[in-house]
């Protein structure tokens, strides 16, 4: 019982001290790639976590409530290079990192590239993705500009043209 009281006293002293001396408790996070320490950095888009061994290690993670959260990587449906989220005139979209060699762009849906809805391109056998053009949404082939097949958008679905007529 005496031991408990001692522990509690020690704990209280420790907590008192912690409150007065440690303003911002820092938790250390390690880089999963090279096991070095991750440091919180500030970039153009706000805070993010980067490896302290940068530039020899290029690991980065998003900052979510002070913790590093690994970015999800999305691959280009055409060439399998990673996609990058970009902003153009206040609208987010996903573009291939192999641009301008690969001109794939995908619509952004809540921070995720809209690749879930796939509809086959009847012209070339690849598939169509929903895009936003000057006149609104439409469906274009992922092989654009090699394949210029497009379909009108009908409330989020490609409007299939009737094969007859
Ligand atoms: Zn690293
Ligand atoms: Zn690509
Ligand atoms: Zn096509």
Automatic annotation (TrEMBL):
One GO cellular component term noted in the UniProt record for this chain:
chromosome
Q: Which SUPFAM superfamilies match?
A: Zinc beta-ribbon (SSF57783)
* Biological processes annotated in GO: DNA topological change
Q: Which residues form the DNA topoisomerase type IA zn finger domain?
A: 31-61, 75-109, 121-154
Q: Which UniProt keywords apply?
A: Isomerase
Residues passing through the membrane, by range: none
Q: Which GO terms describe its molecular function?
A: DNA binding; DNA topoisomerase activity
Q: Which Pfam families match?
A: Zn_ribbon_Top1 (PF01396)
Name this polypeptide is given: Putative DNA topoisomerase
Species for this entry: Marinomonas balearica
């Amino acid at each position: 019982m005496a031991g408990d009281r001692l522990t509690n006293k020690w704990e209280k002293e420790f907590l008192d001290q912690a409150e007065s001396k440690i303003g911002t408790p820092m938790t250390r996070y390690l880089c999963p790639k090279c096991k070095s320490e991750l440091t919180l950095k500030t970039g153009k888009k706000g805070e993010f976590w980067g490896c302290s061994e940068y530039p020899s290690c290029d690991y980065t993670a998003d900052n979510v409530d002070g913790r590093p959260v690994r970015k999800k990587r999305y691959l280009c449906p055409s060439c399998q290079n990673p996609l990058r989220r970009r902003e153009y005139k206040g609208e987010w979209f996903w573009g291939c990192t192999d641009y301008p060699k690969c001109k794939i762009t995908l619509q952004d849906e809540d921070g995720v590239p809209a690749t879930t809805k796939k509809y086959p391109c009847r012209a070339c056998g690849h598939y169509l993705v929903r895009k936003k053009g000057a006149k609104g949404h439409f469906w274009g082939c992922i092989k654009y500009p090699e394949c210029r097949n497009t379909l009108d958008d009908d409330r989020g679905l490609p409007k299939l043209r009737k094969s007859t007529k």
